[in-house]
Amino acid sequence: MSTRTFRITVRGSFDGLTEGQRAELLAAAPAHDMLRAEFTAEGHLTYDIAARPFFTFRFLAQGEKEEDVLDATARAELAAEAWLAERGYGFKQLRSQAQDMSSAPLGKRQRREAARGAA
Hints:
The chain is an alpha+beta fold. The protein is 34% helix and 29% strand. The protein starts with a strand and ends with a helix.
């Protein structure tokens, strides 16, 4: 069986932050900038608390079957909740989306490389 790679995004919004928590998030904002977004096994958090209260965690997971994406998504949501709860950050409207990269359409460059390999 081949290994499948899943990209999972968990989105939500901060809720009921204290001034101290808000200041803490603002101080750590450069490490969580949207321009540095990446998918990682432990999850990468991005937000712009100065502009809006929303956040996104990006997780990278693997599985062998298509159905494994459901378990990976559940684990990603739990990891995001745990990270927020550990720090005492309130949140609401948590939702997730997953993509099985084995079924993602090829981009222009990937199609070109595949065509060269077949020739």
